[in-house]
Amino acid sequence: xxxxxxxxxxxxxxLVAVLYLAQGSLIYPAPRGILPITGGFEEVxxxxxxxxxxxxxxxxxxxxxxxxxxxxxxxxxxVSSVVATDRLVPExxxxxxxxxxxYRGNPGSPSEEGLYRDGRAAIAFLAERGIDPGNLVLIxxxxxxxxxxxxxxxxxPAALVLISPFASLSQLAAEKFRWLPTGLLLRDRYENMQxxxxxxxxxxxxxxxxxxxxxxxxxxxxxxxxxDAYLRIFSGYGHDLxxxxxxxxAVIAFLAQQTEKDHRE
Length: 265
Known about the structure:
The protein is of the alpha/beta class. Helices cover about 40% and strands about 15% of the residues. It has helices at about 1-25, 80-85, 110-125, 145-155, 170-175, 180-185, 190-195, 215-225, 245-265, and strands spanning about 40-45, 55-60, 65-70, 95, 135-140, 160-165, 205-210, 230-235. It has an 8-stranded mixed beta sheet, with helices on both faces. The chain is globular, with a radius of gyration of 19 Å. The termini are far apart. The model has no long low-confidence stretch (mean pLDDT about 90).
């Protein structure tokens, strides 16, 4: 019995060590293939505070329309953001399809603080073109919700949209790996729920009730932390919600509502 327990303990500790060392590739599984640029976007570049030159996608807004800064999920790249905004662009919205370090051939390795630096560089790129925070709509999908929430707390955008977000990566990891001490092992945490209550921008949260990657209870926790936010749960939709017309139509309606509200005030 003692030998068996010792063997189990050694195997468990070895597994914990492997997962600890591999967490970067597990959290940030950047796609290997590079999709072609589509949708009238141009490839642009900007430099982060720690000296990385990142390539991303950009399409300017029509006069009088805000620009969306879109932070994609961890298994995609910026070209996926073109698909996720293909109903928004014809309305007149501009889109900066932000990209991360280590994705789509960009230098560096992704991390929570690294992605925040990347988000700041994307916003600075737009500021250099005369687009101030009050004309920005931040959209974050999945892990991109962590970047969008952090940026919204720093710049006070016109609006914040979270699609399939988690309350925090640390909570999600604890739910997925109940047999691991994730609180001790996890380096990147993206504590959205702790931050969202301090965000004053109009906020929309969209989630599918069939999402098996990030259960929609996470969206409900975010709403509880910021009761002024709007929450819409889509029946039958999974973690790919961002690429469905239903999600884009909800964003269009929300932004139109905010514009009407601003005009009334």
